[in-house]
Amino acid sequence: MSTDANPNPNAIPDADSDDPLSGDPELLKELAVMFLEDCPNLLSEIRNAITQHDGPSLKLAAHTLKGSVGVFHVQPAFDVVLRMEHVGRDCDWDHAEETWTSLNKEMAGLSATLAELTK
Length: 119
Fold this sequence. Notes:
Blueprint: H1 25-51, H2 55-70, H3 75-90, H4 96-117
Helix pairs in contact: 1-2, 1-4, 2-3, 3-4
């Protein structure tokens, strides 16, 4: 998704985009519901892995969340989850809290956007 076409960084592809989800609002809604159900659990797993300095668990939970976020083509959210995955991979605990704060901000924005789609 190009940020030039839509200034909202949490915007989901619209009907005019080339994204396959844009032509199937029911599928998009179903994926949004699944994301909203799974995201809190994955964030909890990420938080626990950071607290325990468990790099492999952090990497796995972030990787799983990255796949879910990637479906919606929201680049800022995808980028921060990728950074968190790298924190886990590298056991980079010096950047874990900063990345956690950014991750929570992006997931809150994406979740709010997706919640609107499910109404």
